[in-house]
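Example 4.3 (complexes with small molecules)
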Amino acid sequence: MRAALGRTHLVPGPYGETPVWAYNGTVPGPEVRVRQGDRLRVIVENALDEETTVHWHGVRTPNAMDGVPHLTQEPIAPGETFTYEFDAVDAGTFWYHPHQNSTVQVGRGLYGPLIIEEAEPVRVDRELTWILDDWRLTKSAVISDDFGNRHDLMHNGRIGNTVTINGRVPESIAVRAGERVRLRLINAANARIFALDFADLEPIVIALDGQPVTAHAPANGLVVLGPAMRMDLILDMTGRPGSRTTVVDRFYQGLEYRLLDLAHAEAVLRGGPPDWPVELPANPLAEPDLRDAIRHEVTFNGGMMGQMVMAEMGGSMGDGASGGMMGNMMNMMHGEGIWFINGKAATGHVMDPLLTLPHGRTCVLTMTNATAWHHPIHLHGHSFRVLSRDGQPTAHREWQDTVLMAPREKVEIAFVADNPGDWMFHCHILEHQAAGMMGVIRVSGKDERI
Ligand code: C2O
Ligand code: CU
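Answer. The structure with CU-O-CU linkage bound is encoded below.
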């Protein structure tokens, strides 16, 4: 896989091509598709003018293959190559992207799908992968170069003005009445959150972040996907032959827009949805043991209006956090960080771990979003169960690697710290990550239960 400058038609004519950074000249990069249990070997060549790495988002790789510069490897210098090699332990929908200068490198088009197939996938008529992204384009369809500006850093990140699916502004997709599609959604945007409304169709969620979940209809009928999150849907095309179903993104109030149409052909494939089973086989994840868990509190704060939310939530934050708040104000004034995890903004390369976990033990993190903004929080090297939100147990105890936290929300997650090494733990709004909202969770090398 070669990372280099390229050009692509993001927007239809009369616009010309947009200069991008791309893997193998395409946006998204090539689909990497293997079977569960296969071993992947990817030789990455860096033909950019700056250092890069590749991170295999959501894949439980050994630490040295995780693609985090200065933490798990030396960055790949221009002109150099690096070989990533690891086993595809979990089946599911994953993706890859650089972990170096991510706001720019991902924002300019470096990302691609990584699909790990189950030995026995669910039966469908067709499988589709949609990598969603948005771009901030100028009037001449060039990517605006205002990456990392202070406004984006302090608010909800770099939200673009042009949404693409698989690197193209979508128009419509031809479907057939009665057809069953497995739709793999991947949000590769720097910052945009999607809430897709499939109108009269009734999507069923069968996997989140690659991990199977009890099949269910999405809450309020909206398919919500924060940056880096994935969702596998079963979508039965129940529209009338010849009709069009418009998919609308409703996440930002007042800014709803038509994403694309599903155009039902005149010819009918079958009279109604098939009755094929939709449950996916479980992946080999260790089940958290809550009776024997190590518990930690994690508070996210900072950003625009952060002081207000901190004051509001002050009662429940404890002394440590309010001490952190003062530190935060100082840091923010000195421009050393805008977002904080437990009072620390990570802005350099060398990172002391926020937490050190004994290998093999269950860890429960009680996370508080003490900000006025959403944050998709991602942990490397592990998938975790989402146990509760604001004290209410989740209906599906879903496995995720990236959990979207609403403003002021408290989310409890649990996982077995079974993958030794130093793992990134960060917000996947890339501007928030760049402005401090990241840290390292260390899983110590030896099994301390023995
Ligand atoms: Cu998708 Cu730390 O990464
Ligand atoms: Cu964030």
